[in-house]
Amino acid sequence: MVVPAYNEAALLPRLVATLQAAAVRAPGGAESVELIVADNSSTDATAELARQRGCRVVTVAKRAIGAARNGGAQSARGEVLCFVDADMQVHPGTFAAIDRAMRADGIIGGATGLRSERWSLGIAVTWALLLPGVWLMGIDSGVVFCRREDFERLGGYREDQLVGEDVDYLLRLKRHGRQRAQRFVRLAGVKAIVSTRKFDQHGDWHQLGAMARLGWLTFTRRREEFGRQVRAYWYDGR
Does any domain span residue 225? Predict the structure, then answer.
């Protein structure tokens, strides 16, 4: 399990506790699950907290979440790679469900899906606008998993893409699977829980305006301003 992390001292311990609880229920027990925190040049106690809780810490200097995911994957020893964001919590049956899925030759990889840790009208409307696109693409989020050989064949995550690198990778993984008559699976019953910290910080309706601004900057090809806003929102907020 690879966890990309930048200044995640507040939420990382909560995630690790749920990962360890899920690892105990894995078919091979806790020793069969490797927990790797890819520390993306944190300036807080992220790395130390991860070590204290039994995780292996890999330092990734390049400030890009794709680079953090790739750096963690490169140091992993397992045949199956899993990725989860540091602000999530995983279901206790996560690793058992992934193991069952990965034993099937007809599956290229998949995701657990996710749900919000709290709801409000603003959050519900935001999700309602985003989910149809996810469903149409046939992908999902939460804990993402695939075989190491496929990850390496695809070249991992794009490190030059500051946002949406996860969508890009999953679409490439899905296409790769289709070429081999394998499908991308969305697991049932083991959804991860994602924090609402961005909504807590900026307000429950803020993301609608943020999506509109980024969409307009993309349409008008204002790449420098797009990059500045992405860094301010996703990279410099902690």
Answer: no
